Structures are given as C-alpha cells and as structure tokens.
Amino acid sequence: MKNIGVICEYNPFHNGHAKQLSAIKQKGNAVCLMSGNYVQRGEPAVLDKMVRAKAAVMCGADLVLELPVTYALRSAEGFASGGVEVLSKLGVIDGLCFGSESGALDDIMSTAKLLLTEKFAQKLRSKLASGVSFPSARQNAIEALGGNGELLENPNDILAVEYCKAIVRQNSPLQPMPLQRQGSYHESMERENPSASMLRKMDDWSGFVPQEAMEVYASAPIYSVSAGERAWLARLRAMQEAEFERLPFGSEGLWRKLMHACREENTLEEIITAAKSKRYTRSRLMRMLLCAYLGISEKMLQENAPYIRVLAMNETGREILHNARRGSDLPLIHAGEAAPEPVYGELERRASDLYGLFCSGEIRPPASQTKDRMIRLMHP
C-alpha cells in the first residue's frame, strides 16, 4: 500500500478536494501537508487550521501535517520546494498527487527540467530586463526555448511544474501524480468542482462542500482580512525603515515603494494599489505585507523549519506517523506540544496569537496554540 502526499491549503475543503482524496484512496493512503493559519496568497486562512485538519480527516485524509508558516508564505516556487522537502524527509511517502489543468505529466516534467537549465536562466534575465512581469517573462523565455508556455498560464499547472521542478532538483523519491482539475480555478460554481476563492466570497457553502466537512464547519468561526485590517495597519504604520528593508520579496527597491505606500495610504487595498505594477503582482505584495505583520524577515523565511506539527489523523495515519518517526529526518510533534526549537517556536506563537485578531466574531484570545490538541479519529 502506497502513502501518497498532497500539499494543500483546504481553504476551505470542498467537493473537488474530496474527489482528489477519493482518487488517492484507490491507490493508497492520503498524507496531507496543509498550510496552517496563513495561506500562500498572503492572507489568513478562512478557518482555523485545526478545524480544516479535522474536516480533511473526516473526508478521507489519513494524516494531516502542518506546512510551516515560513514555507506557506513563500512564492509558488518556494511553497512547492518546501512541501516536497518535508514529504521527502518523512521517508514514508511514495508519491505526490497534485491538481493540473492539463493533466499531462510528460509536458509538466519537461517544462520543469527546462526551467532548471542555464539557457532558461539567461533567457529569463533578458525578458525581465525588458520590463515585463515575472510570469510573462518566464512564459516568454520557455516559449523562446521551444517549451510549452501555455502550461504557465494556468494556476494549477504552474504549481504542478514547480512541484516537479522541486522533485528533480532535490532528487526526491516522490513519484509525481497529476490529477486533471475540472472547472475554473477562480470562478467555477460547479458543485462538483467549485473554486475555493469563490466559496470564500459566499456565506453558504451547502452543496459545494462534503456533508462531513459542513458538520465540522457549522460552529467554527470565520476569519477574514477585513476583520483584522486595523490591527494589520497598526503594525505597518509602526514599522521602521530597517524593518521594511528586511522584508522578503522586497528586491529592486520594492520594499521602499511599499514603505511609502504604507505611510501615505489609508487601507490595505489602497496600499496594494499604490505599490502594485505590471512587474510586482498583488500576491507578492500581500505576502510582503503579511510577513511585515507577523515579523518575518527574508532571512527567517528562507531558513529550514526545525520540526513539523501533526494536526490530525485516523488509525491508518497513526501507523504512518509511527513509521515516519522511525526514519524521518525531521522531528514530528503534536499540535499544542512545546516547540523543541525556541526561536521558531516563538514565531509560531506570535503567528497564532495575531491570527486571532482576524476572527470575524469574538476575538480569539492569545495562547490558543498551546491549547490545541491533535485530532485523532478512530475510524480508518
């Protein structure tokens, strides 16, 4: 029986995710490495990580581990690389399943390998020098070398390429397993293949989310940028110039442009509008702003996480975890357990406490992370 990994966010878990887990369970066990309380788009997760982890196990996951916050807030390349690194180091994961608009593994893998060549690096530098955005420069560079640039137009294919690139670069034993995604990533309202971004704009997820997940979500508080915007702005307005300079993603003077926007504009949206350009995407700016809020510097973002937290599991997951602990290069600790490395533990504490300020209802109290307990469901 194979153990198959999924690098995910489940923000929220919906019917499309359930289909993926169902496909995995036909081949083996599902091990999910899930973003915690903050997601790669540079926002707080709509639901607390423990709620999302429980829903995942209720809907077919065997083991849910937390993708460290410093991996979750990296670029698509860093997000994929960090996830592949963690799953590979567990020593018990055979494959990596991911969504893809094309579902064409050969094209995905050939594009990934092309991205790792010096010829591509030279072409990319040339395209960037012309002033186009990074996504456009990368696609143009791939096409100039005879590659399939269309693969870099769709969000799931882009991430699929990054997963395969990480597998190749790390010489990972993970077998890539693309699963063709149906429906639009951003706009699909199909009940079987909904868009998570559309769901986050809706009040009622009935029919788009499996019943087991709906039962978990029913009494769970919702988190949003708008609920915590004033707290976020307070942090940005209090920052010194040196703190802006240390932010991730701030090269080419972007940190200074963002600093001026934070000191001149009233809202987060106005800050982003003032700093955004064809070259600097909204998602990059959001990650910068969230790192500023959490106190994460470029140096901190690039350091390897010293441990991985276990959020939820069933009986099958307990056996996988037992085997991983015997051969893993990473310490695995339970949710709520004291961190074995105090510096990273302090970052986790701060991130958890500040997440509580995004709660749309009653503000979540500090020290909530120490009260979390790993979720164990007894049915397989």
What can you tell me about this protein's structure?
With 380 residues, the chain is an alpha/beta fold. The protein contains 18 helices and ten strands. It has helices at residues 15-25, 49-58, 69-72, 76-90, 105-115, 118-129, 134-144, 155-169, 196-199, 211-217, 229-238, 241-245, 254-264, 268-275, 282-294, 298-302, 315-327, 342-355; strands at 2-8, 28-35, 38-39, 43-44, 63-67, 95-100, 175-180, 308-313, 332-334, 375-376. Strands 1, 2, 5, 6, 7, 8, 9 and 10 form an eight-stranded mixed beta sheet that branches. The protein has a two-stranded antiparallel ribbon with strand order 3-4. Helix 1 (15-25) links the parallel strand 1 and strand 2. Helix 4 (76-90) packs across helix 8, helix 6 (118-129) packs across helix 7 (134-144) and helix 13 packs antiparallel against helix 14 (268-275). The radius of gyration is 20 Å and the shape is globular. The model has no long low-confidence stretch (mean pLDDT 93).
Radius of gyration (Å) = 20 Å
Provide the β-strand percentage band: 5-15%
Approximate helicity band: 40-55%
Query: Uncertain runs with pLDDT below 50, 5 residues or more?
Result: none
Number of strands: 10
Q: What would you call the structural class?
A: alpha/beta
Measured distance between first and last alpha carbons: 14 Å
Tell me the number of helical segments per DSSP (H or I, 4 or more residues long).
18
The pLDDT mean sits at: 93
